[in-house]
Design goal:
- The protein has helices at 17-21, 34-46, 61-74, 100-104, 108-113, 130-147, 159-169, and strands at 2-12, 54-57, 77-80, 152-157, 184-194, 197-203.
- The chain is of the alpha/beta class and 204 residues long.
- The protein has a single domain, classed as Rossmann fold (3-Layer(aba) Sandwich), CATH 3.40.50.1240.
- It has a 6-stranded mixed sheet, with helices on both faces.
- Helix 2 (34-46) packs parallel to helix 3 and helix 6 crosses helix 7.
- InterPro entries: His_Pase_superF_clade-1, His_PPase_superfam, PG/BPGM_mutase_AS, PGM_Phosphatase.
């Protein structure tokens, strides 16, 4: 059994117009706003001394536009993967947060916004449950780490799934319930490799 150590930089994409409007995006393919592009330029400059060797990114536009700028700034390769997309919100995609209760029931807004595990099976019609999205992002990231021989890696993705990945493994009880646009969460991840399988055992 071999143990590998990784330094991960979890990066949420820059701001979009739908973020400003508080409109649910899910897997809708929205682009960065003007301010979002400015956020990314500033972040890319801040990341120059981190030693990042590879970027793993969602293939949705807002994440691609974020990772492309960081990739150019750092001079590193970016790998795009659909498994790094945001949670699919089904019929709620494109709906304003303020309209959720009237369309999907009075408890839908609180169930969606809650970080309590009792709401992990909540889903909007036609969408993923919270637990399904969490399982997807964990499986995708661990499989990608196995495929690429880099130890300092940036993962450019989305607020819900990145926060769930962080919380799933973190030993810190103050794990963020959600990353803000262009916010970075830095994690140190120890992995056991046995029979070509990868198992996360600790994050500090």
């Amino acid at each position: 059994m071999k143990k590998e150590e990784y330094q991960l930089f979890l990066i949420r994409h820059g701001e979009t117009e739908w973020n400003l409007e508080r409109r649910l995006q899910g897997q809708t393919d929205t682009s960065l706003s003007k301010y979002g592009k400015e956020q990314v330029l500033k972040l890319a400059d801040k990341l120059k001394d981190t030693g990042i060797k590879l970027i793993l990114s969602s293939d949705l536009k807002r994440a691609k536009e974020t990772s492309e700028q960081i990739s150019r700034s750092l001079g590193v390769e970016t790998i795009y993967h659909p498994g790094l997309r945001e949670i699919h919100l089904g019929e709620a995609q494109g709906i304003l947060e303020s309209e959720l209760s009237s369309i999907f029931g009075e408890d839908s807004y609180s169930a969606w916004k809650s970080s309590d595990r009792i709401h992990d099976q909540f889903r909007f019609p036609g969408g993923e449950s919270k637990s399904e999205a969490e399982s997807r992002i964990i499986e995708t990231i661990l499989n990608l780490l196995k495929m690429y021989d880099k130890k300092n890696i940036a993962i450019c993705s989305h607020g819900f799934v990145l926060s769930r990945f962080y919380r799933h493994f973190s030993l810190n009880e103050l794990s963020p319930s959600k990353l803000e646009n262009c916010e970075v969460a830095e994690l140190f991840l120890s992995l056991e490799i046995q029979e070509k399988n990868l198992h996360a055992i600790k994050i500090n």
